[in-house]
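Message: I would love a firmer grasp of how sequence relates to backbone shape in proteins. Thank you; the sequence and its tokens follow:
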Amino acid sequence: MPNKPRIYVSVTYDANLNDKQLSIKKAILNSIEDKGFELQIFHQAGLVINKAWNFENADELMSHCHGAAILAFMRWRNAQQLNGQAADLLSEYNHFEGALAIAHKVPILLVTEPVRTAGITYVGGGMRVYFWPINQCPECISSDDFDRYLSAWTKYINSHRKVFLGYCSRAKSTADALSLYVEHELNTQVLNYAMDFRPGNSILEQIESATKECTCGIFLFTKDDELSSDNEAKAAPRDTVIFEAGYFIRAKGKKRVLIIREEGAKMPADLGGVIYLSLKDRSQIELIETPIRKFLDDQL
């Protein structure tokens, strides 16, 4: 694959952690890197090594990440207990960044010490929470139990690093050449609408499933349906391909959709603001291989 999967790390500053917490943080981050991931930490690593944290930058970074690691350390001490349970509070940044990951549909690795189970650590929130022992020993991060938890999250991320390819059957030869380039040259798995869509399901069901299974999508807008002579464009892309592209844009965002438009094909008005690659000859995809590589480098 073009790049290592990027992991947004949400953790309070080192100055606010004690020695045991720092050791646990280091052990967790080392384990994540050992799985082949690239850490993204403001001021420290990745795309934001030289960037300041703010709402806009955090949202932008999350849109480029494949997973989020929420390390929910105790930040604020609460002298009272709630129903005999821990009531210490984690950083408000963990809550915000956790919500950001949920909004971007980024799979979360949530690891916490005993704190109040509310907000992002709410055990009924629909995600598994990994609690380490109250003695806060770094060795527990090397346990089989934690490794199973980490491995399940890793497997989910890697299995969803696919690119969806949508096209009309008339453009099969172009799609085949594109699939060959993406899979063999860029080592990226392609979910091919013609090969992988299951018979019997509706287009809406299939494309909804594809948006959940794939990180991004590439769509071929080729000259498939002829238009009347008074149109500037000679032909239009197939309606189903336009629908699929629009659905993907809504589900994944414009940045994660690449439209390849054959020269002379009509561009739908509602997608007129979307930047696309121009393909002069559908038999010569080598002319657009470099921007395709860049797109996948940025999004996968």
